[in-house]
Amino acid sequence: MDAATQSETARLRLATFLAGLEGGTVGVLWMLAWLGVSSVWQQRSFWAPENLMATAFDRNSNLAPIFTWATCAGLALYVLIYSALGAAFSSFLRDRVPSRRVMLMAVIFAIVWYYVSFRGVFRLVLPLVALLHVEHATLIGHLLYGTMLGRYPAYVHRLMNTAPPVAEAPGVAVEQTPEEQAPQS
After folding, report:
1. What pTM did the predictor assign?
2. Among candidates 155, 135, 183, 132, which has minimal Cα distance to 24?
3. Mean pLDDT of all residues in the chain?
4. CA–CA distance from 6 to each of 1, 69, 123, 182 (Å)?
5. Residue 162: how many CA atoms within 13 Å on its side-chain side?
6. Terminal-residue alpha carbon distance, the chain
7. Is 134 exposed, middle or buried (0-12, 13-18, 19+ CB in 10 A)?
8. Where is 18: in which H helix or E strand?
9. How far apart are CA 87 and CA 26, in angstroms?
10. Cys-Cys crosslink for 176: which of 50, 103, 159, 180, Cβ 3.0 to 4.6 Å?
11. CA atoms within 13 A on the CB side of 140
12. d(C-alpha 76, C-alpha 144), whole Å
């Protein structure tokens, strides 16, 4: 393998990592927006999910219905965890899965992460979060997260300054440029 190929491979790996980080961050922000709106619909504070996650730092804190410094800590923890998950997901998948299946894999990953974290890990580490989170709203939030994370290949192409591949749908003809249409002799 020559130096140019190694350099391009390293550049692609870095772009994939950063794209996953970006996809995870965008996904968690959409998820938190949904959780806030659904909390308001349930006549709770918009910041209830973040305040609940803030109990990771102070288990004796009261769940204030307002934005406090603890809310910032809970928000930061959400962003840190889900951005890191996005970077790990994209680094693991990299080129192993066809681009048309990445979205499906990301949504499945998000659902599995919901069940592993809120039904398993958080019961031991953050029991208050596991007990008081709103299950259906949080699951829908994870679906949003997975959908946004599944867009990371577009971010890779943007970072690499390349055009994303055009997916050809079955039964749909792809338009050809005039050069491709001209008969070859």
Report:
1. 0.82
2. 155
3. 87
4. 7, 46, 44, 38
5. 12
6. 37
7. middle
8. helix 3-41
9. 12
10. 180
11. 10
12. 19
Q: Report how far Cα 22 is from the mean position of its chain's Cα atoms.
A: 8
**What are the pLDDT digits (tens) for 143-169?**
999 999 999 999 998 988 877 665 555
Measure the CA–CA gap between 142 and 93, rounded to whole angstroms.
Answer: 19
Would you call 56 exposed, middle or buried from its count of C-beta atoms within 10 A (0-12, 13-18, 19+)?
Answer: middle
Distances (CA, A) of 24 to 59, 76, 87, 172, 185: 27, 13, 7, 33, 51
Residues 13, 147, 112, 114, Cα dihedral to 10°: 110
Tokens of 12: 């692609």
- Cα separations (Å) of 81 from 74, 153, 163, 169, 177? 11, 20, 30, 36, 46
Helix 3-41 × helix 152-160 angle, to 10°: 140
Confidence of residue 175 (pLDDT cuts 50, 70, 90): low
- Contact 37/48 with Cβ under 8 angstroms? no
> Within 13 Å of residue 6, how many CA atoms lie on the same side as its CB?
3
